[in-house]
Amino acid sequence: MSISSTNLNVPSANITDNTNSTSTSTGALVITGGLGIGGSTYSNNISNTVPNYGSLFISSKSIPNNALTNFYTSATGQVSFLSGIITQLTNSLRSQQTGIFNITSRVIFDSNATGVRYLILSLSTSDISTLIQSPTISAVSGSETSIYYSITLRMTGSSTVSLSVFQNSGGNLNITNSYLTLTRVN
Question: Are the C-beta atoms of residues 121 and 148 closer than 8 Å to each other?
């Protein structure tokens, strides 16, 4: 059945075909244009095929004593996922679109009871650069020191974010299983 109309007003419709959707052009009901919904929506599964995040991951890296050090370089880490919304630069992530983004970072320092640790997020747009420091954490005796830091803010297209770490344990100190993630949330 095919219906062609500029305005189709149907008080209620029940589609009984149970064909699963595996793409934007398959399923029991396929809508070529956008979809506006004025009320509540219920679904068993909503799938978003447009990637909206980028993540830089480091399994291990040595951080020098008393030096603010960029956490990521392409030689020391890996990209877990990138999309057309977010791209990777040498040591940072770049938003390709304007929107609200969540920046999340976690750095785990090897066990060492001396000194403090902190993170610096560097945010750059075409107009301004901003440094945001995490709280300073005292080293933990007999255990790894972990810093988790997250912030949500509006970024413009081509804004970049990078992560630097600081420690003053008295010598080099390894970080392990650490990451920086940029996620578009709106």
Answer: no
